[in-house]
Amino acid sequence: MSYLALARKYRPQTFDEIVYQGYVVKTLKNAIELNRISHAYLFTGPRGIGKTSTARIFAKALNCLNPEGVNPCNNCENCVEITNGTSLDVYEIDGASNRGIDEIRQLRESVKFLPTKSKYKIYIIDEVHMLTEAAFNALLKTLEEPPPYVIFIFATTDAHRIPATILSRCQRFNFSKIPDNFLLEHIKQILNNENIEYEDDALNLIVRNSDGCVRDCLSLLDQIVSYTGGKVFLSDTKYLLGLSEDNIINELFEKIILKDKASVKRLLNDIDLKGLDYKYITEKFLSYTKTLLLLINFGDSETLILTDEEKSFFNKIKESVNESILYAFHQVLLKILSDLKFYSFEKDIFEIGVFKLLNLEKIIPLNKFGSNDKLGSSHNSIKEDSSKNKAITRLTDKDELWKNFIDKIGEKRPNIASNLGYGYLIDVSNNQLIIGFSQEKVFHYNIIMKSTNFEYVKKAAEHFFDGVKDVVVKLENGSKKKGVIEKVAELETFKEKMAKKELQENSAVKLIQSEFEAKIIDIELDKS
Questions:
Q1: Of residues 397, 400, 458, 409, the one with CA closest to residue 431
Q2: How far is the C-alpha of 475 from the C-alpha of 437, rounded, in Å?
Q3: Which residues, in sequence order, are CB contacts of 372 under 8 Å at separation 6+?
Q4: Lower CB count within 10 Å: N or C terminus of the chain?
Q5: pTM of the model
Q6: For residues 379 and 517, what is the distance between their CA atoms, to the nearest angstrom?
Q7: What is the pLDDT of residues 482-512, one digit of tens each?
Q8: Greatest C-alpha distance within the chain
Q9: Domain count along the chain
């Protein structure tokens, strides 16, 4: 028998073998037990985490001739044919290569015929978001009222590209990335079953580079085992993952932190001679910065799935930095990465960026990069007194709730938030959010009512307000009510406006804005 890749050999065949997707498995099991089978399901989530495997298991469980509880037996004729992809009653369709209206018309015709020898005729459409608009429209009627023996299971990595008319006709299940600790235990079990020798640090690296994807993780394992002839060791893993040059990158990062300029000069020359990718180095530095921030804030290196070498490296340099330095590092590194993507003189961009990291105090004129600097203490005071500010503004509880909702939307969709701010909250009751706009704000009302904007507001409301399932937006004739943006603006005193203006004109702030291409989003004043 030919070799079977680990990702295929260990593909789940029962609900109990599915990794981590607990709520999905429980819901599907209960649906089978209670015989509450829907006509359409949508499985969404990143690649390689079990969407299509779960669809197959569900199809087998529904058509199995000798089910073992809610699990398929995997031995009967129906189960074997579904597993092998030869079943006449379970169709697996690739949405990327069968995306046109003609293919969907053929599907609509085949739906009319009864299953050949199974209870259900099941259509599994992978990457369903790739279907054309015309194809989705052709599918609508069949999806809404299919024959009782037909079930659709859609799988996608991009649910936001599926029309709302399709989404509303499906039961949706959101699959999650597999956490590193779950994935680590999963592949250890597989390697033990295969009698493959491994080093824990090698598995840590593999898991971290799989980004929560089981399939990617097992494919990497296969590649490493093939290269080594049956072992998974750290040195080979680093080589195959392109991490063999990380020592010089680690040393450069450490010497920058320690401001060892002589060593930095030597290392920059070595990097140039080796021809290392400057974008890759910058991305590694960003990753190191994030790891250090996590260690400083939470202090638990075990949850980060680090190798022993990495733990030693980060623990050594953690004592030489604080959060302020790391935040500044992050901003400079983002600027370097942005410039590297748009300009061809990469060596100069990177090396000048390193000079900036070595001389942060010349870029940002602070007394110290610590908790006692003026800007830092002011920032802390602002955070501590945020509740005081809210009390002083004297917005009603309803206005505060509405403002918090708009601020939440503004984190990702500032355009929607700015227009929604000209509306006002009428009521939240009976699972419904009701929003109003005065007639003179019709411009902002029309922007919010655009289908994509309205759908975003609706989804945001479902997450923000407990129990909300529907959103109604009204344009009220004769209304003189003001939006929360206008109320907040009116409540600012002349003194506050002058204080904010003075801060905006501050030379240190301007220098920071210029250096990092930053902009001031909001200013809160310490009113104590």
A1: 458
A2: 5
A3: none
A4: N
A5: 0.59
A6: 20
A7: 888 888 777 665 456 666 677 777 766 776 7
A8: 82
A9: 4
